[in-house]
Amino acid sequence: MCPTVFSFGDLLLICALFFPVAAAQEPQRQNSKGIIHGVVIDQNGRPARHIGMMAKPVGVALGTVLPQTKTDQNGKYQFENLVWLGQYVVFAEDLEAGYSDFANGPASAGPFPQATLSPEHPEAELNLRLPPRAGFLEVHLTNRKTGASISGLQVNVTMSDDPSRTIFSISTDSANPILLPPQKDLLIHIWSFGFNEWMESVGRGKPVRIAPGVHRQMDVRLDRQEPNQR
Question: For the chain, which has fewer Cβ within 10 Å, the N-terminal or C-terminal residue?
Fold first, then answer.
């Protein structure tokens, strides 16, 4: 059987048929600057004051910092100069207040409210209610043999009912609390560069469940890796 050969005209026709479909599925840059604004309330229905907010365009792989703003005294927020047409998710990203993408934002849960920008409507209003605050896990990380503090902290978090599915992994300073999805049965793995994984998290993982806004401290002692283990 002879291989199929396409003429230049055939290729143009194929591109004309398929390219508009692909392009319509991805947000595009806009000449004018988009605006998303609204009011954020907390779990008690009161204005969420001075909370950091973030806007993430759906379906865009970004290598830059996402647009950020803060709510004012009345819980109002506004993003300006948004350069992408299409759908955006807006969520709280404020670690000190207990909000993050992975703990209680779009990356941790189901569908989030979205705002849509278009050439005809470059401005959108999106009012939001904050989810429950994350749980704060504060890890006191030390060398088991010397008692010296270990600064580099590596954490992997999975669901207890599905240990093979990673919720998120993070590398941070051990002085920083880890924000965890609240009221969830989780499994955590803890280790550090040059050290073995924490004995209590080896295998399935260390069970942990933290209520919204609660700070839980955990003393973790690691054994340094032997040269033949690296």
Answer: N
The verdict on 102 and 140 lying in the same domain is: no
Confidence of residue 73 (pLDDT cuts 50, 70, 90): very high
| pLDDT at 13 > cutoff 90 | no
User: Would you say residue 9 lies in a domain?
Assistant: no
Strand partners for 53: 69, 92
Q: How far is the C-alpha of 129 from the C-alpha of 167, rounded, in Å?
A: 23
Pick the more confident residue, 35 or 18: 35
Contact 134, 179 (CB under 8 A): yes
Which of these three, 129, 164, 179, is where a domain ends?
Answer: 129
In a domain, 152, yes or no: yes
Cβ neighbours around 19 below 10 Å, total: 10
Residue 8 forms part of a structural domain: no
Residue 221: domain span: 135-229
